[in-house]
Description:
Chain A is α/β, with parallel strands linked by helices and 257 residues long.
Amino acid sequence: xxxxxxxxxxxxxxxxxxxxxxxxxxxxxxxxxxxxxxxxxxxxxxxxxxxxxxxxxxxxxxxxxxxxxxxxxxxxxxxxxxxxxxxxxxxxxxxxxxxxxxxxxxxxxxxxxxxxxxxxxxxxxxxxxxxxxxxxxxxxxxxxxxxxxxxxxxxxxxxxxxxxxxxxxxxxxxxxxxxxxxxxxxxxxxxxxxxxxxxxxxxxxxxxxxxxxxxxxxxxxxxxxxxxxxxxxxxxxxxxxxxxxxxxxxxxxxxxx
Amino acid sequence: xxxxxxxxxxxxxxxxxxxxxxxxxxxxxxxxxxxxxxxxxxxxxxxxxxxxxxxxxxxxxxxxxxxxxxxxxxxxxxxxxxxxxxxxxxxxxxxxxxxxxxxxxxxxxxxxxxxxxxxxxxxxxxxxxxxxxxxxxxxxxxxxxxxxxxxxxxxxxxxxxxxxxxxxxxxxxxxxxxxxxxxxxxxxxxxxxxxxxxxxxxxxxxxxxxxxxxxxxxxxxxxxxxxxxxxxxxxxxxxxxxxxxxxxxxxxxxxxxxxxxxxxxxxxxxxxxxxxxxxxxxxxxxxxxxxxxxxxxxxxxxxxxxxxxxxxxxxxxxxxxxxxxxxxxxxxxxxxxxxxxxxxxxxxxxxxxxxxxxxxxxxxxxxxxxxxxxxxxxxxxxxxxxxxxxxxxxxxxxxxxxxxxx
Lengths: 257, 406
């Protein structure tokens, strides 16, 4: 999951702003009303950016961010009317072998990497042109849906990092340098990155995929903080709350109007 | 231009140079006696940076332990665990060991105390002492907190480098000088000193490994033998490919040169041996533990089609006596390479293999095919008959019967 995150992150231009980029199956309509959603164990990591620019993972920050994100996700889904189950462990689903869950996570890692490469990194496939999002997890996902009765599975990844005081000091030095002609006003440091991938467990297809990148080029300026209630809610909102229907669905809606 | 500022730029440059000189290739041997464990039994992460590392590693271990590359034969994994129990020092009960089916000479220790041993390593070890030596070396990485120290070293150096870079830029900017070249030099210095720190840690693990090995009653010379074997294998593999072994084990290597390690390990082994105590290599215990898996390990190696390395591995194992399996796989090396004349060498291998009572069924099969090619129909028929007798349910049994008639 982490390496997939890096591949996706590389595709987002590193500018100081918030970006999202979603793709959907041409026939996708955002789940509404009485749907059952299974959230696969979210992969969350939070770290501190060292002076030299390395990200050092922090266990306590990661734990609190995970808890806040899960709470924000529950609140957001409750508002949409969905019946949600969030897996905290691979063994959280009664009657389902954790190994089956692990296999599906690994499969999604491979499929997600392919989406990252061909939808986000610029290696566009001519065979998939005009097809929206055309990837599937196949029979394994259908089998999980049949076994558990869920309609959708959501795969989540989120990382956040914050500039250490040393990094901020370095940034201050860089901005001060602008007065003597050596300007390093945007050394960067810290920021958010997240992706979400929605699979339809009735067909096995990946029907919707979205990434969020929120980072500042100036170390010390935060674009969000998933360790807080508001920050977590903000990320869930950016990531999941603006699902657009697929192209064919949009066209049909336009005709009706 | 202000002379004071330009001097600072020069100083920055000189600092960078000094860093790179400090990483020169000269090395001093780490003494086994200086290498005590830095952690005790039941150790858990304490500092924030270490806790973060451990949390990530728990996920890694979850993936590793669920990987389908693992060999999960209970007897073999219990055997490996018993080794870590002997040479794991104070953390012997805390460490975990996973065996991955990868035909390469390697073993990795992770910061939380679990190790992954590649199956190619098991194949290459001649006795239990050699394998225990590698396990002891990996244990030492954990006992001396190497991954954490490596991370802290990297953090410190990249921190220092960032300020140096910013300082040089500022000074250069103020003085109107382009400091880019000096900055690059400093960057090289940082990278080189990172690698140096890594080599120091490897030397520490070697020194401590020798000590753990001798303490457990194994012959500590086993570790230098392992390196001797690695050097020999790399040389022969390169020679068969008409290349030279990569000898650039100097500035840009994370591990010390194998020759230097081998020499240091020999001296250290002599140093840790106590007069009057007996040390054993435990050859037969190792043979017994590996008996069921060795055919698979050899097969994986030979199918890499790296004739030099495979021949070296087989010759090394044959120093303790040839058997039908080794002779058969020796034939396979040449059959797979398939250059002109290799068929003759392969045929010789199969012919030699069937002289041993433990020749595998496939040795008889290939012996038969080679005889058939040479026109020795009657002998081929009896070889095939022997094959079918040993493996009546072989998937190609019908084909072989057809060859016997035709």
